[in-house]
Design a protein that fits this description.
Elements (H helix, E strand, L loop, with lengths): L4 E3 L2 E3 L1 H11 L4 E3 L1 H14 L4 E6 L11 H12 L3 E6 L21 H15 L8 E5 L1 H4 L3 H9 L4 H4 L3 H8 L10 H13 L3 E5 L3 H13 L6 E5 L25 H9 L3 H11 L4 H12 L4 H17 L1 H15 L9 E4 L4 E2 H7 L6 H9 L3 E3 L2 E2 L6 E2 L2 E7 L3 E7 L1
Parallel strand pairs: 4-5, 4-7, 5-6, 7-8, 9-15
Antiparallel strand pairs: 1-2, 3-8, 10-13, 11-12, 11-14, 14-15
Length: 411
């Protein structure tokens, strides 16, 4: 029988230890851990849920699964019974977060912010439980501050401390522009924690300075300071660079189910286990057991299929995941996907390079030729090796790589 440890007057039970393990799973830092343990113990003893905040500036309308790493952590804590606050930074978006930037970020209009926020929350709700999520906008308390309140807030922090921040320090030493309003961003994010009386704030590793600002300002206002939890940035499909649309190594949460499933199946066996830790809702014990089976001789493809099914189900539903798995199996056996784009082109006889470009299967004729040289082009399931091939009028299934298909009717 485990002996309970008592911190202050609250008992650290096995259930509290389990909650701590859930909190630490996959995280980069949890600061200070002893304070978070006390908060968890107090919450269990009093039956009072903790207030857990995630602030997101809706600077873009769509998210990829890399963005869902921190949302997954929110859902895990939500499932422990705590209050999750999805904070939309409609006010702070108008300032622009300077984190990790080498130049001033242009502010968004209120119309852009609202449109992005609506789409972002719909997508985030595929991870969070909407019925148990508190949605707030920081304009609720930021707008009423006014000029007087803003000046009083700015008096709570020094310029010297602000310049300790890496991106500000780097830009200053390189002679790059720093606008005065950018100093307001971490102050306003910190003030959000005061307004919400946050117990824990989550963010990416690049948000640590802003998260600590919340602790500082809560103390200035006489509140118990929040703890902070940072999550790592997810590596993309290449397993090297962080997931990014600009690098093309991402999976969008709104991508078709078949595409999402196939992309998950394309990751390396090594990267798969990191994705399990950061993206799966399976328990760590389940993941460890699965990994032991693979190390004991089970085909790692089975584990990857399970992960692909889980993620596809999350964003598209179980039926779509079933269909996506079957589609993937058909393709791996040389079959064709059940659905593919259909288009009509004129100009027969048409060169294969021009056809690939006009069908949107290659960005240029020269790239199409490179794909042919690499053996990545098929017409009606037959590999194309002749870059001078001309196709007569008719209907063809054209394939580029493993995932690009189109049914082209040429006239």
């Amino acid at each position: 029988m485990n002996q309970a440890v008592v911190t202050e007057r609250f008992t650290v039970s096995d259930r509290v230890r389990d909650a701590m393990a859930v909190s630490l799973r996959g995280c980069e830092e949890l600061l200070p851990q002893d304070e978070w343990l006390k908060k968890l113990a107090r919450s269990e003893a009093t039956g009072t849920p903790l207030r857990i905040k995630l602030g997101l500036d809706p600077t873009a309308p769509d998210i990829h699964i890399g963005h869902t790493v921190v949302l997954n952590k929110m859902r895990q804590l939500q499932d422990l019974g705590h209050t999750v606050i999805f904070l939309i930074g409609d006010f702070t978006s108008m300032i622009g977060d300077p984190s990790g930037r080498n130049s001033t970020r242009p502010p968004l209009t209120s119309e852009q912010i609202q449109a992005n926020a609506d789409t972002y929350y719909r997508q985030a709700s595929l991870v969070l439980d909407p019925a148990r999520t508190e949605i707030r906008y920081n304009s609720e308390w930021s707008d009423p501050l006014g000029a007087r309140g803003m000046i009083q807030l700015a008096a709570k922090y020094t310029v010297a401390r602000m310049m300790e921040r890496d991106d500000f320090h780097k830009r200053f030493t390189e002679g790059r522009s720093i606008s005065v309003h950018e100093f307001l961003y971490p102050l306003m994010q910190g003030y959000d924690s005061v307004a919400l009386r946050s117990d824990l704030e989550l963010g990416g590793t690049d948000q640590k300075f802003n998260l600590l600002m919340g602790r500082h300002l809560q103390q200035e206002w006489g509140q118990e300071p929040q703890c902070i939890l940072t999550m790592p940035l997810l590596e993309g499909l290449d397993g090297v660079e962080k997931m990014s649309k600009s690098k093309g190594n991402y999976i969008g949460v709104t991508e078709p189910a078949n595409t999402l499933f196939a992309k998950v199946m394309s990751i390396s066996d090594t990267l798969m286990w990191r994705w399990y830790t950061l993206l799966s809702f399976r328990s760590e014990a389940e993941i460890a057991a699965l990994r032991a089976e693979v190390e004991g001789g089970r085909n790692p493809r089975d584990a990857k299929v399970a992960l692909a099914r889980e993620l596809t189900s999350r964003f598209h539903g179980a039926a779509a995941a079933d269909a996506a798995e079957q589609d993937f199996v058909n393709r791996s056996r040389g079959g064709l996907p059940e659905e593919m784009p259909e288009l009509a082109l004129a100009g027969a006889p048409l060169g294969i390079g021009a056809l690939l470009k006009q069908a949107g299967l290659a960005p240029s004729t020269s790239e199409a030729n490179r794909l042919i040289d690499g053996g990545g082009v098929r017409v009606d399931q037959s590999a194309v090796s002749d870059k001078g091939l001309k196709l007569a009028a008719g209907t063809y299934v054209v394939q580029v790589g493993k995932r690009k298909f189109a049914r082209v009717t040429l006239s």
